[in-house]
Design brief:
about 210 residues; mainly alpha; Endonuclease Iii, domain 2; Endonuclease III, domain 1; 2 domains; 14 helices; about 65% helix
Length: about 210
């Protein structure tokens, strides 16, 4: 049995997911985004609590300081605080990014090769100790950068909203409940999360068009 066949066999043990998968189509969660853990976390910290365009503008100004994309840790730490604040970084984000850069230099933030040897739980435990990085941020790193296949971010509002829609619930489930319900979909919980994200988005385009 191929991996995809095993994935769908696992997900389709839930009758509600059968119709959702048939409607949404194949899971398009594929591969890594090509970033290192440091680069992915750097981008995530910059983007926290910002709309996409604003985050990209600030990140672009920071990257322009060195002209080499996301600055390497030593290059970032060499930049004056005033220069970085003029890029649009808040004091809290600047503090978090400097901590991230120092953690990469000290080896706390792993390179791709070391990250590949660490389990999901080991990476979460190590990285959530850093300022500005919570469990959800590490889970996004696991799914989209490290291509881990069995991550269900139960604290993600859209994932919970997707489960609510899938099951016709009045309210989104509590994280602990969703974690328990999702256990039977191992080792394909990242794909489950992908479908729940798609479910949470269904109808929004039409609604926005009607109310815009």
């Amino acid at each position: 049995m191929t991996e995809d066949a095993a994935l769908y066999a696992c997900l389709k043990q839930d009758p509600d997911l059968i119709s959702a998968i048939d409607r949404i189509g194949p899971c398009r969660l594929r591969g890594s985004d090509g970033k290192t853990p440091y680069q992915a976390l750097f981008r995530a910290i910059v983007g926290q609590q910002l709309h996409g365009r604003a985050a990209e503008a600030i990140l672009g100004r920071v990257c322009a300081l060195t002209g080499t994309g996301i600055p390497e840790p030593a290059d970032f730490l060499s930049q004056p605080e005033e220069t970085l604040r003029l890029c649009g970084l808040s004091a809290a984000k600047l503090h978090a990014l400097r901590g991230l850069a120092e953690a990469r230099l000290s080896g706390i933030v792993p390179d791709p090769e070391e990250a590949a040897r660490l389990s999901d739980d080991e990476l979460i435990l190590r990285l959530v100790a850093l300022r500005g990085i919570g469990r959800w941020t590490v889970e996004m790193l696991l799914i989209f950068t490290l291509n881990r296949g069995d991550v269900l971010p139960v604290d993600d509002f859209a994932v919970r909203a997707g489960w609510q829609k899938l099951k016709g619930l009045d309210q989104p489930p509590k994280p602990a409940f969703l974690r328990k319900e999702g256990a039977c979909f191992a080792p394909y919980r990242s794909a489950l999360a992908w479908y729940l994200w798609r479910l949470s988005e269904e109808g929004k385009t039409i609604k926005n068009a009607l109310t815009g």
